[in-house]
Amino acid sequence: MPPVNAPYRPEGLLARPLYARVDAAAVAHNLARLRAALPATGAPRLWATVKADAYGHGLARVLPALRGADGLAVLHLDEARTCRRLGWKGPVLVYGGLYSPADTLLLDTPQLHLVITHLTQLHWLAQAPAAERPAIWLRFAGDIHHTGFSAEDYHAAFELARALAARGVVGEVGHLNHYARADEADGVDHADARFRALIDGLPGPVSTSNSAAVLGHAARAATTQWVRPGLALYGASPFADRGAAQLGLLPAMSLHSQVVGIQRVQAGAGVGYSGAFLAPTGMDVGIVTCGYADGYPRHAPTGTPVVVAGVRTRLLGRVSMDMMAVDLGPVPHAAIGAPVTLWGADGLPVEEVAMAAGTIAAQLLTGLSARVPVALAGASPAR
Ligand SMILES: *Cc1c(COP(=O)(O)O)cnc(C)c1O
User: Fold this and answer.
1) Among the atoms of ligand 1, which is closest to the Cα of residue 210?
2) Is 275 left (phi over 0), alpha (psi -120 to 50) or beta?
3) How far is the C-alpha of 128 from the C-alpha of 130, rounded, in Å?
4) Which residues carry this modification: N6-(pyridoxal phosphate)lysine (predicted)?
């Protein structure tokens, strides 16, 4: 693997100079950092959230770095099978639970944990008892109201779940909540108080905390039995006011390209579709091969930070399908082939690019498209 800023081509292929670099060691570091936020003794166990192919990093690439996790959390049962196929033997939590009665046929591996979000799922389980009894987690609708039981329905669901456990249809029954505002300083107080009051006196383990809750509300997370971080494992900050570096996290993905063309434009000339950027003076514009078909956000505006030859500069005009334009004013020495960092290295966090584009880091990371080759840090590149 060449240094991050050196031109890179997958071996034996004539390729575009655009690639992502995934650093599994950074994931291992971030896992340790999350553990360190929790008490040294009696700490909750940790589900490493690896849905969306490990937030776009590739589960197969990062799994070796997650050996120290207590479990993996995925969206669908099919992904749980992928975890097994890749050699993961520990518990797997399935956030999406069952989408149809046929999904019960997929309950064929041990140590599955299913999130239960409505009563019909419990009926499906009762009618088609699985070969392997899954542990189940009842999800409270909480303050996010995406899926899960309302406060009114929760206790009835718990009684039914307990009856199924008594019949040996399911294993242990736990309690799961997911916060809408864990990234805010006072964002979980009310939500947690409501959830704790709801499950007061009910037996079973409790899980409430994603990355923002573990890092921002550690004392509360520490009173639960399982935490469920995702984003922070990949080195992005969940907070608007604190960067990943401040949190001691290392970016696990960086996106690199090159200047593949230089346009000298006159004052008043438009750059890109619709002339969304008009050159105020004569200027040098670098054309970078990376566009929205690669997963770079099309709605990133002029001014979105980009690093060219180690120097921070800015995007100009509209991002197009395969390319974008950047200001070479701060980098007059940049020539064709100059290295470009789009995010994740050279002091350019993915969350800063996301913020400039009006989105979040997780969308950029999960949105990297299949046509972008990925180089694994410390290993030979693969397409
Ligand atoms: C995605 C997800 C998580 C992980 O959230 P991050 O903000 O990425 O840490 C945790 N719990 C549930 C239910 C999720 O869907």
Assistant:
1) 9
2) left
3) 6
4) 51
Q: pTM, whole model, 2 decimals?
A: 0.94
> 223: closest CA among 208, 203, 201?
208
Contact at 8 Å (CB) between 191 and 177?
yes
User: Has 324 been labeled as part of a binding site?
Assistant: no
| The ligand 1 atom nearest the CA atom of 139 | 13
| Whether residue 273 lies in the annotated active site | yes
Contact of 150 with 185, CB cutoff 8 Å: no
DSSP state of 104: G
Residue list, ligand 1 pocket, CB within 6 Å: 49, 51, 95, 178, 210-212, 228-231, 238
How many degrees, rounded to 5, is the angle at CA 99 between CA 96 and CA 105? 105
* Protein residue whose Cα sits closest to atom 6 of ligand 1: 230
pLDDT at residue 7 tops 70? no
- Whole-angstrom distance, CA of residue 191 vs CA of residue 183: 13
Choosing from 51, 55, 154, 292, which is the catalytic residue?
Answer: 51
